Amino acid sequence: MIELLMSPKGIVLGLIFFLALIIYWQIFDLIQLLFMNEPLNKTSVVLCQLRGRQLSGWVSVLPLLGLLGTVGGLFDSFNGLAHGDQAVLSTGIAEALLTTQLGLTSAVPAVLLLIFCQRHCERFLQETECIDVQ
Questions:
Q1: What distance in Å separates the CA atoms of residue 113 and residue 56, rounded to the nearest whole number?
Q2: Residue-wise pLDDT tens for the chain (134 aa)?
Q3: CA angle, 4 then 64 then 118, to 5°
Q4: What is the predicted pLDDT for the residue at 9?
Q5: Which of 52, 54, 70 minimizes the C-alpha distance to 13?
Q6: Any residues with CB less than 8 A from the CB of 109 and at least 6 apart, and which?
Q7: DSSP tag of 62
Q8: Alpha carbon distance 128, 24 (integer Å)
Q9: 59, 25 in Cβ contact below 8 A?
Q10: What DSSP line would sit under 89-117, residue for residue?
């Protein structure tokens, strides 16, 4: 496993990990803005919605990076299969599965947290519109 992370192919794993770290840092900052700071106003909620849309674009990149690692791992596997090298074959399959798993397991919770934040923003804006009408 350590050999995989230290190899040039480990760059995809590093990219997924680094991007996921940045995304979750921004999501938790967004949650803090929505739930733990001063009372919300319409401007801050609209800014949070825009930030959430931007983050959802970055979250959609995570599974694509996982797919990139999968293709690279499968390419190595087929190359090892052609040369009869079982070590390269198993390492390529491990890389393909690991990058796919890492891309998906980092993207799915981020999507759920962003949906939670977006619903909170929408609910706040609907409540303020109801109050403004009355």
A1: 10
A2: 556 555 666 788 888 888 999 999 999 988 888 888 777 788 888 888 899 899 999 999 999 988 888 888 888 888 888 888 888 788 888 888 888 998 999 999 999 999 998 998 888 888 887 766 65
A3: 125
A4: 66
A5: 70
A6: none
A7: H
A8: 29
A9: no
A10: HHHHHHHHHHHHHHHHHHHHHHHHHHHHH
Domain residue ranges in the chain: 2-133
Tokens in use for 32?
């803090």
Is residue 84 left, alpha or beta, with left meaning phi > 0 and alpha meaning psi from -120 to 50? left
The letter for the amino acid at 134 is Q
Helix/strand/coil (H/E/C) assignment for every residue in 3-44: HHHHCCCHHHHHHHHHHHHHHHHHHHHHHHHHHCCCCCCHHH
How far is residue 128's CA from residue 134's CA, in Å, rounded to a whole number?
10
* Run of H or E residues at 1: none
Other beta carbons less than 10 A from residue 67's beta carbon:
16
